[in-house]
Amino acid sequence: MKIAYLGQVNAPTFTLKAAQQMLPEADLIPIKSIPRVIKSVENGECDGAVIPYENVYNFTVTSTLKQLLRTHLVINKQLQIQVKHCFGYNPDSQNVTCIYSKDQALEQCELWLDERYPDAELISVSSTGEGANIARNTHGAGAIAPIGSMSGLVGVIEDIVPDNYTRFLQLGHSYGVRTGKDSTLSVLDITNKREPGMLERCLGAYRQNGINHSCVQSWPKAGGGYYFIIESDAHAQDEIMQESLDKIRWMGVGVKIVGSYNQ
Fold first, then answer.
1. CA atoms in the 13 A half-sphere facing the CB of 162
2. What is the mean pLDDT of the chain?
3. Which of 5, 72, 1, 73 is nearest to 36 (CA)?
4. Model's pTM, two decimal places?
5. Which three-class secondary structure state does DSSP give residue 170?
6. pLDDT at position 106, please?
7. CB-based contact 165:56 (threshold 8 Å)
8. Which one is the CATH code of 182-262: 1.10.357.10, 3.30.1490.100, 3.30.70.260, 2.30.30.40?
């Protein structure tokens, strides 16, 4: 089984670590951007994908959410892992003038960077591993990356942002197997039903069936209105979830199930 993940060859990333834990027997294929990771599964080059979804410091990964709204692929598994960002710099550097990493990592470490390198230019690249590769070959450069990518860099400081966790998603063509303790991510589009209390009515359809939500967030639509992304404590194949979504559809609200997976 071929599984695409966010990363690049010979550059360990946290997504690689998550993929290894989720699919230890799979042939893991590094790809440099989240849209291209998704595309590799859509066009049949890979059988599934592993991508980052949310972090305790900077919340939802916008590129991932954007793709979930667009793609026909669905989430079938999730895993939260501890993320230990490390910092190192080019051995020929007297002063660090630029720091390379994934945009999410730079955001998660912004307070640490502001305190220690307030004048350094922060440069976003496709992955933390790529940032480390660039820093190894760039005078005056530093990088934020996993400890496994720090080879060839000096002044290494480990775990610069403590208690940092990221949730990763596995995507494929079918939902995860029902376990009795599952979650479903759904997208509601109420743009054409912009009536007072419409979102409350939708949430009430879940409530009538005893379904709790772990997260409700919005995403703006082009031309106005919002999508509402709802993570619920039930599987898409559970009768109570199907009944809830049928009630919402009957209200004239658009519904897309983005995935069902283990809690």
1. 0
2. 94
3. 5
4. 0.90
5. strand
6. 96
7. yes
8. 3.30.70.260
The residues that bridge with 78 in the sheet, in sequence order, are 169
Average pLDDT over residues 204-215: 96
CA neighbor of 34 nearest in space, from 126, 130, 158: 126
Q: Residues 187, 101: contact at Cβ < 8 Å?
A: no
State the Rg of the chain over Cα. 20
Residue with tokens 């530093």: 142
Report the CATH architecture of 2-82+164-172. 3-Layer(aba) Sandwich (3.40)
Provide the token pair at 211: 């379904």
Residue 185 burial by Cβ neighbours in a 10 Å radius (0-12, 13-18, 19+): buried
What's the pLDDT tens digit per position in 31-58? 989 999 999 999 999 999 999 999 999 8
Boundaries of every domain in the chain = 2-82+164-172, 86-157, 182-262
Fold agreement (2-82+164-172, 86-157) = yes
Residue range 86-157 forms a domain whose CATH class is alpha beta
